[in-house]
């Protein structure tokens, strides 16, 4: 299964010069746990719920006074739509992230989260069962594709 099969395509973004309050408001309205930070329309970082909480705690200032650029992680780990789920999970593990923006060139085309991976798990199991049935020469109805049925 590929990233394009499991990713969310409605990506929430916030400009680097927006306030953390504005970015958190976008997250809450969309029901997501992060926003992709953009500079001049290009992906430049990510602000997660945890990043926002840390920024508020350490800055000891209201979210409306903290710019997204000061709170966001600026080292953006991305993947492409054609990456396998297994490869994307490996990227997440190696980079200690739970969210991977999906890019095609410099264009953000989706977001893959650990929640998406878990939801895709059922599809992966179904796909594995179908492949095993084919390998063994049986259809999902239990009838042989060839050979003796007696």
From TrEMBL:
Domain CBS: residue ranges: 7-63, 72-127
Entry-linked Pfam families: CBS
Organism: Halorussus caseinilyticus
Protein name: CBS domain-containing protein
Keyword Cytoplasm: no
PANTHER family in the record: CBS DOMAIN-CONTAINING PROTEIN (PTHR43080:SF2), CBS DOMAIN-CONTAINING PROTEIN CBSX3, MITOCHONDRIAL (PTHR43080)
Assigned keywords, A-Z: CBS domain
